[in-house]
Amino acid sequence: MSPIVSIRNLTKTYANGFSALKGVDLDIREGEILALLGPNGAGKTTMISIICGLSTPSSGQVLVGGHDVVSEFRETRRLIGLVPQELTTDQFETVWNTVSFSRGLHGGKKNPALIERILKDLSLWDKRDNKLRELSGGMKRRVLIAKALAHEPRILFLDEPTAGVDVELRRGMWTAIDRLRATGVTVILTTHYIEEAEEMADRIAVIRGGEILLVEEKRELMQKLGRKQLHLELKTPLGTLPPALAALGLTLSEDGRQLVHEYGNGAGEGRIGQVLAAIEAEGLSLSDVSTHQSSLEDIFVSLVEARQ
Questions:
Q1: pLDDT tens for residues 262-274?
Q2: By the 8 A CB rule, do 200 and 33 touch?
Q3: Which residues form the signal peptide (predicted)?
Q4: Contact 48/235 with Cβ under 8 angstroms?
């Protein structure tokens, strides 16, 4: 199956010489949730702006549904819904009117039943007659999603959709986005809340300095780069690490109270029994044992730091 978005050798250089994108290649599959992660200034918003037709590339090509975003912009814009970072809404308009207007803006015929379903899916139905200035920040973000969905796009871009939203509303929005994926909508998510990517995404793309560092299935990435640590609390602190334990790859904490055995992806896992036997042979007593597994945030930080 052809990707719904195909990016080839995409570059963007501004008049001041700053290069925001440097030969980006990326395919986005239809119906997936792709999390695009990167630090501030990495090029996330620039790439989204080009795909959505809000900015022009310096070179390269972007196809959306097989259409070129530059030469066939009318066709590509009909396929795309965008939820921007900024809360850009008409404060004195009602929820119903602003969502309905957005559908008409994209050339869609009136469809009150569709607008009703979208508002209900996003828990906005009870607020349909409220003016936007009467809503909380979280509710306004839901309105932005409703506007982006009003013309029935096949692709939805969410640029920091839960920034400034409380935890309860954030989880409600995750549920709404998951329902969208179930209907076949492709979702591209940028976020600073990496737990969102870990919770929702099918694949992870990491961008830094205008370049894609990797694109991986989330599960494969967690297996490949995730590490586990076995933490062994000592009843009596050690001054130095015994050579027999050092030979097994253990490390000693600065305060001498904890031994750490790191393993992952099958490496070192089979040595746990050997490690425990060696500790016993050294005459050491343990007060506690715990494990820690790398989160997606740990992996992201290590990837970005490794490329600095």
A1: 776 544 455 778 8
A2: yes
A3: none
A4: no
